[in-house]
Amino acid sequence: MMQFIEETVDYLINKGFDKPEIGIILGTGLGQLIEDVEIIREASYNHIPNFPTATVEFHKGKLIYGIMGGKKVIVMQGRFHLYEGYSLQDVTYPVRVMEKLGIHTLLVSNASGAINPNFKKGELMLIEDHINLQGSSPLAFKGVELLGERFADMSAPYNAAINTKFKSIAAQHDITLHEGVYASVVGPQLETRAEYRMLKIIGADAVGMSTVPEIIVANHLNLKAAAVSVLTDECDPDNLAPVDIAEIIAMAEKAEPNMVTLFKELILSL
């Protein structure tokens, strides 16, 4: 993996990806942030050596380098998921590449279902902790100790100072920003009523199919990390309607301006 990372990093440096400070992973329906980036360079995933390729139709497939809020940022426009047939090492490969390029902070967004009955679709949730239900770890491979501490500490995976700034920005802009626990499952099927009940019992406030692997690797690499979920549907097992993916995407797009405000103002403050 180290050789692969070096090849990828060399390619991106030669393309002009020059010492980014902040990495951003954009989730489902959350592409508008790019409009606030002064783009300097971009590379399609399928042109980057050793990079996976996004296969989900509503995920783009570009790595973008530019300036946002006076900071050099590198943005993943489209991410990878376990349910696409990738390994957890594939899913998190871009985080390792961004760290080698120079980032010190990783910001992640996603779309998720609200388990907490007090949370409503269209609102945002700041992730303050997570539950890994994906069945494995992105650190479970031979040679991981060459890339960082094998037994990565996860007592505080989401940076408290960044989360405090997120909450302050939300208050200033009158944005509803809940705090909660995110459960990450494999997917791609959505949950049954019994599974939603289980998730509530074990302490999850929202559920999705991403983010946790990237956060684990960010902590493995000693990056500051934070993540925000757009709550796209309400997962009430007693009143569960069939899933409507088009409605989920529309809800993510509706909430997107608030997400953009949070990320833009945060980056200005870092």
UniProtKB/TrEMBL annotation:
Q: One MF term in GO for this entry?
A: purine-nucleoside phosphorylase activity
Q: In which pathway does it act?
A: Purine metabolism; purine nucleoside salvage
Q: Which GO terms describe its cellular component?
A: cytoplasm
Q: What is an annotated GO biological process for this record, any one?
A: nucleoside metabolic process
Q: Which residues form the Nucleoside phosphorylase domain?
A: 21-267
Q: Does the keyword rRNA processing apply?
A: no
| Keywords for this protein | Glycosyltransferase, Transferase
Q: Known EC number(s)? A: 2.4.2.1
UniProt-listed PANTHER family: METHYLTHIOADENOSINE/PURINE NUCLEOSIDE PHOSPHORYLASE, PURINE NUCLEOSIDE PHOSPHORYLASE-RELATED
Say which family it is in.
Belongs to the PNP/MTAP phosphorylase family.
Q: Which NCBIfam families match?
A: PNPH-PUNA-XAPA, PRK08202.1
Stated role: The purine nucleoside phosphorylases catalyze the phosphorolytic breakdown of the N-glycosidic bond in the beta-(deoxy)ribonucleoside molecules, with the formation of the corresponding free purine bases and pentose-1-phosphate.
Write the protein's name.
Purine nucleoside phosphorylase
For this protein's source organism, the top of the classification is: Bacteria, Pseudomonadati, Bacteroidota, Flavobacteriia, Flavobacteriales
